[in-house]
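Progress note, project year one: complex with phenylalanine.
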Amino acid sequence: MDIAAIKAQIDTEIQKVDSLPALEEFRVKYLGRKGLIAQLTASLATIPSEGRANFGQQVNALKNTLSTLIAEKQKSLTTATAANVGGAVDIGLPGISQELGRLHPLTQMIDEICLIFVRLGFSVVEGPEIETEYNNFTALNIPAEHPSRDVFDTFYINQNLLLRSHTSPVQIRVMKSQKPPLAVVVPGRVYRPDAVDASHSFMFHQIEGFMVDREIRFSDLKGILKLFAQEVFGKEIKMRFRPHFFPFTEPSAEVDISCIICGGHQVTRSPGHQEKHCSVCGGKGWLEILGAGMIHPNVFKNVGYDPKKYTGFAFGLGVDRIAMLKYGIDDIRLFYENDLRFLKQF
Ligand code: PHE
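Model obtained:
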C-alpha cells in the first residue's frame, strides 16, 4: 500500500472537515478500531520480513501525523464555534422579560373609593401622620378624660405629638384653612396600639369624608353613603344606620351594609343544600363599615365657623375592612406581609 498516496488523501480530506461531528467521522475512519491505521497494522504480518520494519515505521509516523492533524482541527473548530455564539444574535431566543409591578390592593381600594367621591364633586386632601394632640382630640370635642386619649389607645410621641389615631384631625386642618362650601375626602394611615390578630393591625387605613355648607342635612349623608356602598358592593346592597356616639358628631351613627355573603338572610346554603349560620356576619345579616354623623357645633366653634350659619356631615370608613369584605379576605395581616402570592392576585 502506498503510504505517500494515503498521506496526500488525508491532507485533502482534513481540509474539508468543517464541523466537530465531521471531525469525529474522520477520526473513526483513520484511527478507529476498524480504521485504516488498524488495517495497516494488521497487514504488517503479510509484509515480507525485509520491508516489515520500514513499513511499520511509516504506519507509526502516519498515525502520529493523524493525531496532530485531528488535535489542531479540533482546536480551530472549537474556537470558531465559541466565536459564533458570542458574536451572533439569535433572534429566535425568548427575550429577557421585565416583571411589571402593580399597585397594592389597599392603594387600589383607596383610589377606587376616592374616585367615587371625586365624581360627586369632592376633592382629595391628605394630612400628616404625626399630629398634635389638639387636632387629633381636643379640637374634635374629645374631652381630656375620654378613654381613646389614654396612652394604651394612642401612640404618643411626646406631650403634644402623637401618631394620629384617625383621619378626623384633617377635618380641623381643612376647616381652619378654608371656608365653606367644602366637600373633601381624606385617605391615609392611622395608628392604634392594638394587639395584632386576623382583624386588628397597629396601623390601618381610613378615608374621612365631610361636607360643610348652609343647609347640609342628614339625608345628604344618607344619599351619598348609599351611592358609595352600591358603587363598591353592587346595586343589591342595603344599608342601615344605627344610633351611636362620637364626640365630634351629633347625631352620630354607625353604618352597616347587608352581608355580602348571605345578603342579609343570616344563613347560607352549603353544597349539600343544608342551611347554616353565615360566618361572615356571624348570623346577624349586617356588617359594620363606617362611622358618621352631623358635625358637632363645638367642632365648628373650634375652627371659627358659625354653627348657626353652617351645618355639615362627616364620616370615617375603614379601607382595610372594606377591601377584606369586597375580596373575601379573612386576615388583615395578609395586606402587610408582602407575600407576592397574595399581592399578585390584585
Ligand atoms: N373618626 C372615627 C373613628 O375613627 C370615625 C368617624 C369619622 C365617625 C367621622 C364620625 C365622623 O372611629
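The mean pLDDT is 92.
The chain has two domains: 3-84, 105-343.
No further modelling is planned for this target in the current period.
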